């Protein structure tokens, strides 16, 4: 089983970090293939320690797996070094980290533009984190981006940055009345990062090819999730990369024929951060209950997450789009104590029932959820480890999710801890 892709089936924050960590001791490589430090994974170890990871792959907490940041990631070196230092101080071995030299850098002008453009958009804002992710990907596509490998050549770094700042400083100063970015200070700052990052920069594609040739297991984890995919999500309220399974090949440099399993993670309900359509969003006491009991606040930003019932239309779309082989349902315990647990099984759009994702942005904005109500349960399920230990109504809920998604549910999360899971089918042989 050489390559496994782990993706989110909703709008992110589904608990991918927990699943990555769950598999980390049984895989040889863990690869982050998309996004930047606008995403985060929260992992709780068996001894109760909590780690909030932003750029580092969740496999960093595995005692033996190599951890890779692939070419599809955009890297803020200051954030990455802070994270490396924080993990090292807590006794985590970070010497196993390797970063693709082709990964693009987030520069000061990216962060400045991200913040000022978002403010300028006002009520039409996308809801970015202001960390420079979108502008960095924009420069990558425009072919004026700066890569990690450029840190190793001071002349190249200065030349590329000077070229980029000719335009960016004009925009910052003349359009938005903001202070221009200083070329010399930025070059000096980033060359300082280069000294520390140099041991980690590598040709990661070749490393992964060799690992696959040795039949070692490579786990590829995406940030964000399917509905935030640049091409397949709720555009324009999306991220700036492709966190879907297809993006794993591009963002890590491995062939699609190497992928043998795609694991999708979904909460037992739905959350979203930032602006954009969200058909099952709740504005009542139920939504507040999900937010409070589920601790729905962003790992990276601390922002409140919008909460709603499980959307089977979105989940089924994600399963089909990504070729999902195994579905992991997290936070089932958050639904405990609700007398009824609705599932969105379709939408009503302009008086017409639809069961699949609508084609147009306009239709999706106007989609009204069609609910099917299931009976809830009151029993504490956090100690359950086998299906038989779950209440009958909880089992019925999972079975209905499985049926609606036409994909087997292999793991059910019943608490935040690493071992708080019910295993229905093994994820690895």
What is this entry, summarized?
Pathway: Purine metabolism; AMP biosynthesis via de novo pathway; AMP from IMP: step 1/2. By secondary structure, the chain is of the alpha/beta class.
Are there runs of 5+ residues with pLDDT below 50, and where? none
Beta fraction? 15-25%
Coarse structural class: alpha/beta
Strand order in the sheet with the most strands: 9-7-5-2-10-1-11-15-19-20
Considering the protein shown, what is the CATH homologous superfamily of the largest domain?
Adenylosuccinate Synthetase, subunit A, domain 1
Using the 3D structure, state the CATH architecture of the largest domain: 3-Layer(aba) Sandwich
Share in helix? 25-40%
CATH domain class of the largest domain = Alpha Beta
- Tell me how many strands there are: 20
Major β-sheet, in short? 10 strands, mixed
How confident overall, as mean pLDDT?
92
Q: In total, how many domains does the architecture comprise?
A: 3
General shape: globular
Q: C-alpha Rg, in Å?
A: 22 Å
At the fold tier of CATH, the topology name of the largest domain is Adenylosuccinate Synthetase, Chain A, domain 1
N-to-C span: 9 Å
If helices are DSSP runs of H or I spanning 4 or more residues, what is the number of helices?
12
């Amino acid at each position: 089983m050489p390559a496994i892709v782990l993706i989110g089936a909703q709008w992110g924050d589904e608990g991918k970090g927990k699943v990555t960590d769950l598999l980390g001791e049984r895989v040889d490589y863990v690869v982050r293939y998309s996004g930047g430090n606008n995403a985060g994974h929260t992992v709780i170890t068996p001894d109760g320690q909590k780690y909030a990871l932003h750029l580092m792959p969740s496999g960093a907490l595995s005692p033996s797996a190599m951890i890779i940041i692939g070419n599809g990631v955009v890297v803020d070196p200051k954030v990455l070094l802070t994270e490396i230092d924080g993990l090292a101080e807590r006794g985590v071995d970070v010497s196993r980290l390797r970063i693709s030299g082709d990964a693009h850098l987030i520069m000061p002008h990216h962060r400045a533009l991200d913040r000022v453009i978002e403010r300028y958009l006002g009520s039409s804002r996308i809801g970015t984190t202001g960390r420079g992710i979108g502008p960095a990907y924009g420069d990558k596509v425009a072919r004026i981006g700066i890569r990690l490998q450029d840190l190793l050549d001071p002349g190249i770094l200065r030349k590329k940055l000077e070229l980029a700042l000719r335009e960016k400083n004009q925009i910052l100063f003349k359009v938005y009345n903001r202070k221009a970015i200083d070329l010399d200070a930025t070059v000096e700052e980033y060359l300082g990062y280069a000294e520390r990052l140099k041991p980690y920069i590598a040709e990661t594609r070749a490393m992964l090819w060799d690992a696959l040739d040795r039949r070692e297991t490579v786990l590829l984890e995406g940030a964000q999730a399917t509905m935030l995919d640049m091409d397949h999500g709720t555009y324009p309220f999306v991220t700036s990369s492709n966190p879907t399974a297809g993006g794993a090949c591009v963002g890590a440099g491995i062939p699609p024929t190497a992928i043998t399993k795609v694991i999708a993670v979904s909460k037992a309900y739905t959350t979203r951060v930032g602006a954009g359509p969200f058909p099952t969003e709740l504005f009542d006491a139920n939504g507040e209950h999900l937010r409070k009991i589920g601790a729905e606040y962003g790992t990276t930003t601390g922002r409140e997450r919008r909460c709603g019932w499980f959307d089977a239309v979105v989940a089924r779309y994600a399963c089909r789009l990504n070729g999902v082989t195994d579905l992991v349902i997290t936070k089932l315990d958050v639904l405990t104590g609700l007398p009824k647990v609705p599932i969105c099984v379709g939408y009503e759009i302009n008086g017409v029932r639809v069961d699949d994702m609508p084609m147009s942005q306009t239709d999706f904005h106007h989609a009204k959820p069609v609910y099917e109500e299931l009976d809830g349960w009151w029993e504490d399920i956090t100690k359950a480890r086998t299906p038989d230990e779950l209440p009958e109504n909880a089992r019925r809920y999972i079975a209905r999710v499985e049926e609606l998604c036409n994909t087997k549910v292999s793991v059910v999360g019943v608490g935040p801890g690493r071992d708080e899971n019910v295993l229905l089918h093994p994820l690895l042989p």
